[in-house]
Amino acid sequence: MLLKINSNIVFFWKDGHFVCDDFIHHEQRSIDSSIYPILNLFSTWKEENEIFTLLNHNETFTEEFLKVALFQLKESKILIENYSKEYEQEVNLKHWDTWGSSSKYFHYNTRLLNKDHYIDKDEQYERLSSKRKSDTPPNIYKNINDSEKIKLPLPSYKEKKGFLETLLGRQTVRSFNDKPISLNDLSTMLYLTYGAQSCKYEIGIDKIIFKTSPSGGCRHPIEVYPVILNVEGLEKGLYHYSVENHELEVIHKKDMTDKVVDMAAGQNFVKGASVLFFYTACIERSMWKYQSPRTYRVLMMDMGHLSQTCFLVANWLGLGTFFSGHLNDQYVEEELKIDSNKEIVMGVSGIGYRSNDSLEYGRDLRFLKELNYEI
C-alpha cells in the first residue's frame, strides 16, 4: 500500500509542542517529535512496509513502535493512502498550487465550518467590557508627532455630477495629463473618501468614527499616505493624512517621481498621477476587537470599500483614478517609516486629470496597450 504525508496538513512548533494542523477540517494535534524520521520518509509516496527500513538507521525504533506509529498516523489522516478520500481531496484542491500553499492555508484556515464555535454579540460585548478594564483600546486616529502640519481648505460640496453619471462613468484610468489638481479638490477628495463624517464617543465598548465607506466593526484600520506629485500650492513630497484634524502631516518634501515606481513594484504608469494615496492598515485596531484570523479577510474588504469610494469621488470631481494592490511592501514600509509588524501595506490609488488618449479611448485604452505588450 502506498502512503505519504497529507499535503493539506501543516506542521509547526508552538510552546514546546510539535503541532500537526489539519487546516481543512480545523483540527490540531500535538505529536511526538521523535516520529519526524517517519514523516520525512513518507514525504513522497512510499510502500507502507518501507517504514521498517528505519530499523536500520535508528536504534530507538522497535518494530512494535513503528507499527503503532504507522497505525496512529493513518488513523489521524496525517499519512494518507493512494486513491483514498483524502487523496481525492488533494486532487480536487490541486488548482490552489497556482497561488502557493500560503493562500490555500489562509483560505481554509479562516473558513468557518458548522462545527466551529463563534461568540454572539452579547458574549462579544461581555468579553470586550472585561478586556477594556486591563487592555485599553488602540487609538482610533493616527497622528505623527512633531511633524509639520498643513491645514487643508474646507471640502467643497458643490454639485458636479449626478449619482448615476458618477456611478456609470467609473473606470480605471492609468493615463494622465500634466494639469495639476487644485488644493481644494485634494482636500475634498481626502475628506469625502477618508475623512471622519461623524464621531461617537464612549458608545458601547470604544470611541468610534463613521466614514463614507463601511468598516468591519467600525474599526477603520486604514491609514492614507498621500504622495504629492502635481498639486497647485503644495510642495512635492510624502505626507500622512490626519483624519482627526483634516490636515496633512509632512514626512518629507522630496520629489518622489522615480521612487513611486519602485514602491509600486515597477508599474511605471503610477508616476503620471498628480497624487498617489498609499494605504496601510493598523491591525491592532481590528485585532483588539476581533480575535478570529478571519478578520484579516475583513481588512481586505475595508480596502476594497475605500478604493471604490475613491473611484466615485474622483469621477465626481472630474478626475481619473486607479487602484493597485501590487506593491513592493518592504520598499513602501521603508519610505513610509512604519512599524511593519503592526501597520501593514494594503495598496495604492492614484488620481489626476485624464490624458487625451484616455478621453478618446476610455476603457479600451488599457487593452489597446496590452495588445502592444505595454501592460
Features:
375 residues, alpha+beta, Outer Surface Protein A, domain 3, NADH Oxidase, 2 domains, 7-stranded antiparallel β-sheet, 3-stranded antiparallel β-sheet, 13 helices, 15 strands, 22% strand, elongated, Bacteriocin_Proc_Enz, NADH oxidase, Nitroreductase
Structure in words:
This protein has helices at 36-41, 63-75, 85-92, 101-109, 121-132, 163-168, 183-194, 259-263, 283-289, 295-316, 329-336, 356-361, 364-371, and strands spanning 2-5, 9-14, 17-22, 27-31, 46-47, 79-81, 149-151, 198-203, 206-210, 222-228, 237-242, 247-252, 275-282, 320-324, 343-352. With 375 residues, the chain is α+β, with helices and mostly antiparallel strands. It has two domains: 2-109, Alpha-Beta Complex (Outer Surface Protein A, domain 3), CATH 3.90.930; 149-371, NADH Oxidase, CATH 3.40.109.10. A seven-stranded antiparallel sheet has the order 7-12-11-10-13-15-14, sandwiched between helices. Strands 5-1-6 form a three-stranded antiparallel sheet. Strands 2-3-4 form a three-stranded antiparallel sheet, with no helix packed on it. A hairpin with an 8-residue loop joins β10 (222-228) and β11. The longest helix is centred in the C-terminal third of the chain and has 22 residues, at 295-316.
Ordered list of secondary-structure elements with their pairings:
Elements: E1 2-5, E2 9-14, E3 17-22, E4 27-31, H1 36-41, E5 46-47, H2 63-75, E6 79-81, H3 85-92, H4 101-109, H5 121-132, E7 149-151, H6 163-168, H7 183-194, E8 198-203, E9 206-210, E10 222-228, E11 237-242, E12 247-252, H8 259-263, E13 275-282, H9 283-289, H10 295-316, E14 320-324, H11 329-336, E15 343-352, H12 356-361, H13 364-371
Antiparallel strand pairs: 1-5, 1-6, 2-3, 3-4, 7-12, 8-9, 10-11, 10-13, 11-12, 13-15, 14-15
Helix pairs in contact: 7-10
